[in-house]
Amino acid sequence: MFKCDITKLKLSFNEFHDAVAKDMPEYGSYCLLELKDGRYTAGQWHPKNYKDKKKLEGCFGRGTADTVDVNEVAKWHALSCYDLSECLECEDITVINMGEKKEGSYSVRFDGFKILKGRSYPKEEQFCLLIMKDGTLAAGRWNKWRGHKGGWFIYASALSSHSSDSVWAWTPLSTDDVFAAEEEREKEKALEKKLNKNPVADPNLFKYGTDIEVYYEKALEKLKKEYPWASLAQMKKKQPYVIAPRHGKYIFGLDNGVFYDTREIREWTGGSTADEFIDFLYEYTKDAVRDSDPDERFKFGKDISVYLDMAFNNVKKDYTWLDKKMLKKTWQYDIQQVNGDTEFVTRYYDDFNYRVVDCRSAEEFIKYVEHDYQEAALRANPVVASYDVPFGHIEIHGWNLEQYRFYKLASGDYKVMVQAGDRVTGGSRDFFITPHCFEAKTYGEFLDRYLEIVPGYSFGLGKADLIDDAKLKKFLGYA
Hints:
alpha+beta, 26% helix, six-stranded antiparallel beta sheet, 4 domains
């Protein structure tokens, strides 16, 4: 790596430009910025109209939703034109000038660089000037990798970033609103940790102690009077409540997981006594218990093959080529004891772990299995021909229709794929065209049945769009 002593190195930036309309950087240039309030940062220049050199309008982008308006900027200096490699190979070098240093010219010097390794990382959200391992200069906002060593410096929108693996040294630029907010959050987190070392319990709210199971047991006693089959496992199918310290006091709340190293607990505020919370738990979990009636869920017994055979036979009526060999490499099902309750469970064929299928009735479970069997049948039926329906611009609930393609399958059946999206995301969906549609004697009647499966208001094309498509009509066998 480079040989210079980084602890003694100073970078002197000379030849700053004033932020005026006639002298701004090229579109997309990354620049060191001096703000009008004296702070230093960096950003990528995005003029509002790059062809208009008379108006000073635009911003410097530092990340997604993180910009500096040009009216806040006093001076700029392009960072992308330098390669310091040869200078950094010199052991004795202590100052490197960025641009020619002239008498009376405006200059700014940065030092205090640290090698980015070991524990020598910036603080979270700190915006830094960077010396890259290839000798170039850059800047970015530090975000550490959660649960791993290292991190990245975000420097532009869409989380464009420099990986810590590509950065040699760094020094902080000025504090900004994002970093100040992060610093305040860290102070609050430290205070919260201190307060929660010895939390106190409101004697009215925690009349029965600070074990959440006690409150669930008391709510369960009430539930059993109405639903004899009720169990704790059924109650906890609804996101379970916990008892946790917050601001130095115990609270009842929902644990929403860890966000930015902080556990998010949504506090229950529906009352001020333990018995009120127990009444709430009764109401909160009642639906989950009611929908777990074993007489409804296992009305056909507790032999999983009975349910799977029913699902198979239902799917076989339309997906006539389906056979059980096609189901070996798909989802597998069973009936097992989970936390003391009988449950339908599923796992993918190459996975060892089962998970509970949360369903209210035997019929609902069978429908759940049918969906997997239908997809397995389509995967096993190769495409032999396709036809893309032509269309103009079509917007579907904020998304743009991108593709509408019919497929003929090896079995002689058909399916259709609809794809839609916007500039950043999208998705597609396949629909099997059931034999019932092809029992129609006319193409118009076929479309009426088909559009019950793929309705035009949801997927872009209706009867009026398809009825005059002679090629589609021929492709589907109605010519």
